[in-house]
Amino acid sequence: MNAPAPISPPILQWLRISAYSGFSDVPRRIVALDREFVFWLFDCAFDDDADDYSADYAVYRIGIDSMLAKHAFQSLSVPDALPSDAFAGTVPVANIEFDATVRNTLFVHTRRFVARAQ
Fold first, then answer.
1. CA 101, CA 64: separation in Å to the nearest integer?
2. Between vectors from CA 15 to CA 9 and to CA 18, what angle results, nearest 5°?
3. I need a surface site. Which of 47, 84, 87, 95 has the fewest CB within 10 A?
4. Average pLDDT over the chain, rounded to whole?
């Protein structure tokens, strides 16, 4: 079986935030649109063992399906709501720059984006 094609993460560009939740300093779950109107989901899950949020966002490419974006955003388990090949990788929360409101746009810096294993 062939490995899934690599997903090009939305790096070095501003993305428009269309939905967010779990706000703790920064949004902990975000659906954002890139320049090609592709939905991306950034999920920073709470780690019960550490009693804190993860230091990384898991990044998923949803595509152009707004209903799938809504379903994934509202799901209790993002990996269960999306196809397995949607996972693009992780990026440290510290490498995400938000606009001044922390609610409208975000910028993904590339230095520490970790692509999914092939």
1. 26
2. 115
3. 84
4. 87
Query: pTM for the full model?
Result: 0.86
| Predicted confidence (pLDDT) at residue 84 exceeds the cutoff of 80 | yes
Note whether 58 and 72 are within 8 A (CB): no
pLDDT digits (tens, 9 = 90+) for 21-65: 988 788 999 999 999 999 999 999 888 898 989 999 999 999 999
Give yes or no for a contact between 88 and 116, defined as CB atoms under 8 angstroms apart: yes
Residue bearing the bigger pLDDT, 112 or 107: 107
Please state the φ and ψ torsions of residue 86, each to the nearest 5 degrees. -75, -25
> Over 50: is that where the pLDDT of 118 sits?
no
- Structure tokens, 98: 């938000």
